[in-house]
Task: structure prediction
Amino acid sequence: MKKRNAFTLIELLVVVAIIALLISILLPSLSDAKEQAKVAKCLANLRGLMTSTVMYFNDYSEKFPFTVRSGSGNLGICTWSYGGKTNDEYWETDSGGVFYIPVTDRPFNEYLMGTQVEPDLTEGSVIIKRTEIPAVECPSDRTSNQRRFNEDSLDTQSISCYDDVGTSYHYNLHAIEDTNIDEWENDGQGWVTLGRTLVKDTLGGFSSTFAMFLPDPMDWGLYDQIQMIGNHKKFSKFEMGYLDGHAAYKYADTRRWCGLGWASINPNWAFRAGQPRGAIYYELLTKTCNP
Result:
């Protein structure tokens, strides 16, 4: 008789159990590592956006390119007109098309995407083309909340913000809302005045903490004053672009306007007990950076 070498059923089950345990331990680590790579890519895109912002300000005397658009009796300003690709077709008809911004009408694109010049032999001139490089797309961008500002709808949960409005990162309009200045005066020029003053104030004192560009979940969370899950699947953690040129991924409680290392409003315009108010201030007493 020959002795046969083989696993018993119990030994086989033990091996399978050990392999399953190892997989359950390793898979979350691999998933986290993959998401960290996306965080790094997202922050690199934001740093490129901030570099483009500084270049634009240098060329245009620190003036942010706000665009107050009109259509079918509507006036509108949006957080994505600065750069990116053309919106989803939904925006062509919404509110008279005031929020529909073609790629060629977004002023930062010259800095973000570069410009390709081609000769037009038939007309004896040149054709200006802008290559659609996803320079303002977060690789973890999965949903858009932007249509919810106009209607209580969740129908954009299946479309990324980049595909919806052309960018994953939004200019922080929260910082220039709720002031004593009428934003819509002179056909919306109040927005322009406030935005340019905000930039000057920011560059003058808190450019390393003011979050000029926000991801979509943070933008909506501040609007609704609720906490959100960020693009990278972490509760209340968001990527932000600062006017001093850096970008950071950090915790931000969007039930508040400010926190450790970040501010979504101009602290100089916030109410401070015992201090006189300046020419521009937030009329909402709750819009402060107080703990």
In short: The longest strand covers residues 237-242. Residues 9-59 form the longest helix (51 residues).
